[in-house]
Amino acid sequence: MTTDQPPVEHLDVLIVGAGISGIGAGRYLTTELPSKTFAILEARGASGGTWDLFRYPGIRSDSDLHTFGYEFKPWRDEESIASAPRILRYLREAATENGLDDRIRYHHKLVAAAWSSAEARWLVDVERTDTGERIQLSAGWLFCAAGYYRYDEGFTPHFEGRERFTGQIVHPQHWPEDLDHTGRRVLVIGSGATAVTLVPAMAGTAAHVTMLQRTPSYILPVPAKDALANRLRRIFGEQRGYALTRRKNILKGTAVWRLCQRYPKAARRLIRWVNTQQLPAGYPVDEHFNPPYDPWDQRLCAVPGGDLFRAIRSGDAEIVTDRIATFTEKGVLLESGRELQADVIVTATGLNVHAMGGVGFTVDGEPVALRDTIAYKGMMLSGVPNLAFAIGYTNSSWTLKIGLLCEHFCRLLKHMDAHGYDICRPELADPDMPTRPFLNFGAGYIRRAVDQLPRQGDRMPWLTSMSYHADVKLLRADSVTDPELHFAHSADHRIGAPS
Questions:
Q1: If you ran DSSP here, which 8-state letter would residue 6 be given?
Q2: Where are the domains of the chain?
């Protein structure tokens, strides 16, 4: 006797990830294509992505929330550089206001996705992370909004003698709820945004905090509150005041980035001068605040209100630039011979990149190797049908690009509906086109994973733009059609001519 299998639930779109990108994508689908069926799969038990996962002291944005926030939802807080709890509240408000709470399926982890051209659908395998159960869903489109790093594992390099240390070692990605650093000596290893956030946040109650860096980063003080933004909101109201502030901050951010790109020596001198003004007289600025690379070859670290510099001036924190020879029972021994003693060591050493959430994709039975694909308009992959992904800017606020990508995605689906297409696949016209890394960025976590990621070309539409103004033209103003984007009907099982 045979038992009939229940039918596989089918959705028009499956969004993967309920963080800032996934919630944004859900909102655009709800407002632009209200007849579409969709769900948001979230592997964890809560929404918010990064802003719910990280719980270390002082966690905050390193971009202003007038550009890091959504274009459709004003940021109403007085502080423009915001803490994680405030950002999380904002994201969850956006989900609730747009009717997304019931569309998020928690503890649903996408593990594999198989595309069938004959059926014009993705058949996906989903693991229930709370029960271990495996289920299947099908979807016309996948929208990957799972970010770019592993949520279950941060990056920690090998440290000689680590097992000898008798104190506590923690990674910021897995911060223990019961960790009390009051009155204890803390050593933070790292020099990126996480480290410069942790140091001042812990310095107020710790006995002393030391930030040990192998290589300095560019660090700039920024106002915690945007006085002009708050004034504009009072004068013009929330919606218009927010729009004006957003435009102002986009222009300001673009100007700073262009200055650093065109005049790196002048930008370096300016940043050094600002650092000198923030530090005690005679401080060795060139030892601890003089990176070997140009500004914006890696992301600049923003410190609201100059809190890191304030902690250094007060003597509650210090920066040491050196390399670790080995861990000891009481701390770390440096190559210079100095020993830094600590009760708690924090390895703020970065992330592990995990493209597309580590999902295994196949297209008509053939595995997809991401490193062999080329990104189309920074949102689709060559040879892979009906798959979009959300990767934001590395030189500006992440969400600025996400909004444009979501708009373009909705316009693409409308075009397909209008012409009766159910398959859309980017295909290279020139297979010999030169390529380069998808994220041409000097950060260590990107360099470690560059061979696992898609690539980009040397011309549009295969060039991944990092310019908001260029993307406004490409993704908002230009047509969704392109000679290298092919549409088809599943009924005839072949890729049709571009429309």
A1: P
A2: 9-151+352-492, 156-349
Tokens 């030892």 identify what position? Answer: 287
Say yes or no: do domains 9-151+352-492 and 156-349 share a fold.
yes
Query: What does the alpha-carbon distance between residue 200 and residue 308 come to, in Å, rounded to a whole number?
Result: 5
Closest CA to 391 of 19, 12, 11: 19
Across all residues in the chain, what is the average pLDDT? Answer: 91
- Report yes or no: 388 and 380 within 8 Å, Cβ to Cβ: yes
pLDDT tens across 427-465, in order? Answer: 999 989 998 887 766 565 566 666 778 898 988 999 988
Kindly report the CATH class assigned to 156-349.
alpha beta
State whether residue 416 is helix, strand or coil: helix
Within 10 Å of residue 245's Cβ, how many Cβ atoms? 25
> For residues 495 and 363, is the Cβ–Cβ distance under 8 A?
no
Please state the pTM of the whole predicted model.
0.92
Confidence band, pLDDT 50/70/90 cuts, at residue 498: very low
Q: Which residue carries 């944005």 as its tokens?
A: 61
Sequence-distant (≥ 6) Cβ neighbours of residue 192 within 8 angstroms:
217, 299, 301, 348, 350, 443
Contact 444, 415 (CB under 8 A): no
- Give the sign of the dihedral formed by CA 184, CA 185, CA 190, CA 195: positive
Rounded mean pLDDT of 143-147?
90
Distance (Å, rounded) from C-alpha 418 to C-alpha 480? Answer: 13
Separation CA 24–CA 30 (nearest Å): 10
Q: Which helix (H) or strand (E) holds 128?
A: strand 121-128
Beta strands in 251-357 (DSSP E): 301-304, 317-321, 324-327, 331-334, 339-341, 344-347, 351-353
Pairing of strands 219-222, 301-304: parallel
Q: For 152-166, how does the pLDDT look when each residue is reduced to its tens digit (9 = 90+)?
A: 777 788 899 999 999
Dist. CA 284–CA 286, nearest whole Å: 6
Q: Which fold has domain 9-151+352-492?
A: FAD/NAD(P)-binding domain (3.50.50)
Q: Collapsing DSSP states into helix, strand and coil, what is residue 68?
A: helix
Which residues have a Cβ under 8 Å from the Cβ of 106 and sit 6 or more positions away?
18, 42, 44, 45, 46, 47, 130
Q: Which residue has the tokens 């229940």?
A: 6
DSSP 431: T
| CA 408 to chain CA mean position, Å | 19
pLDDT digits (tens, 9 = 90+) for 203-213: 989 999 999 99
Instruction: Return the pLDDT at 397.
Output: 87
